[in-house]
Amino acid sequence: MPDQLLYAMEVLLNGLMAGVLYALVALGFVLIYKASGIFNYAQGVMALFAAMTLVGIMEGQVPFAHLINAAFGTDLHVFGWQLSGLIGILLTAVVMVVMAWAVNHLIFRHLVNQEPIILFMATIGLAYFMEGLGDLMWGADIKKLDVGLPQGINGWIDTTTFDAFGYGFFIDNLDIWATVIAAILVIALMIFSQYSKQGRALRAVADDHQAALSVGISLNFIWVLVWSIAGFVALVAGIMWGTKSGVQFSLSLIALKALPVLMLGGFTSIPGAIVGGLIIGVGEKLFEFAIGPMVGGATENWFAYVLALVFLVFRPQGLFGERLIERV
Amino acid sequence: MSLAEQYVMDTEMDRSEGHITEDGRKIGAVMMEMRNITLKFGGVVAIKDISFDIRQGEIRAIIGPNGAGKSSMLNVISGFYHPQEGEVWYNGSRRAPMRPYQVARQGIARTFQNIALFEGMTVLDNVMTGRLNFMKTNLFQQAFWRGKAEREEVHNREFVEKIIDFLEIQAIRKTPVSRLPYGLKKRVELARALAAEPHLLLLDEPMAGMNVEEKEDMSRFILNANDEFGTTIALIEHDMGVVMDLSDRVVVMDYGKKIGDGTPDEVRNNQAVIDAYLGVAHD
Question: What ipTM, to 2 d.p.?
């Protein structure tokens, strides 16, 4: 096989794996949007907040240490424990559920029946609040996150492909793990929404609030549930990206990459988020590989958005979005 | 006799344990009682000091011209609106103000004037949502899908299939609701409400916008539901012929007030009712 083709295959694989992570972030948006009509601008900050909390809990940091020390003249910094990744993740998941409850009860419960733009503005406020809260609780410095996921080049793939084609594929172990975990999470979410009682209730709420109430579904319960799931999805995304490039503010920007994914897949479709994520992931890597050198590179910064723009012109509801047909 | 006196007489009568109708159905004791309900939206009085009751096993109609407050009354019963004054009594005790989902969990199901179905789901899924409150297993049990959770799903599914057969919508079980014509949507909505095995079923204009044939079908389903499942039904309907045929007792509303209450025959001969329908000038 010619080298160029092999290289393209490697790029394609990396693109697919990046795509699964995009899909994961996009799923967080889709879940909340479907169930409550809220476009959650804070999804990225939730991932950042989750990752910060995870690092803080694992390293036994005292939350609000600066604030406490300034107010009481104490010198607290750490509790002095080191927790394993698994326990840290479980405790952080609990924190995200508490946060979901607080977000619903303090903010969105009071905004029922408001215009979508009002809800959107509220999530912008929420994003800045959570960013500040995260910094206040755990400090604004860049943190290293290591929950025990393997990193570095996968030797087996390297040698196997080298033996077969004479060219070793460079695939990062972390990417493989991230892909597997994200895929499991996505499948689990789809099964949950299709076959469980709560999933059926969730779909009902997403479809019609009034009808959901009339069959005895508590909207508040479902909203706390979706915000919790979105929080958990954010946690997983935060772990993947945080492990890769450190827990820092730029982590919250990955959510912006989910926007073109949503435009492709449609805001209301879970399969759409997955396929959209894969298309964007593969598309931007292949584009950079094939066209990038001709235009001076760095196409990954804009390719996804331009592709989404093209899609908007021809298929505004996305690939799988529900088409709006109204009887007249 | 004033309406207040009439009501006192009614409530005294209500202490009795019920009677058997001409067609052999058993009408029981009072299950739901509205006492002096007043509902306002800002300065607009939608319902003014209305009292009436619903007996176990009966078909109770609420009629009146457009804007009379009928739908508002149904919304008070189902917890979508909360009256400023008055009390709602259910099964012998006063009901605290409740959210609609809590009312539903007490065994009161309803349909809506402008159909409220889950458009994206199939007919079967829609009807299954009516069973949500009968599913007691938790997520963990469901995730591993055995024993209790499985039996529960099977049992609920069987009941739903029974309702689907009953309403003759087997052919469209797997069809997404958004593709159905209006008349069938109304039927699916009734199926979902019946799937909840309600003690009290509230129907808001179940026959609005239907042709004669569809109306006959719907009437048959309402009567059969009442007969076979013993469901107590309160309905709002515009078609006088249908109302008089279906219902055991009728409440007549006009401009938010109650102007008549009794059997179809009594109501038909009530001068206030005739005036309201023929449009006599109000003083």
Answer: 0.82
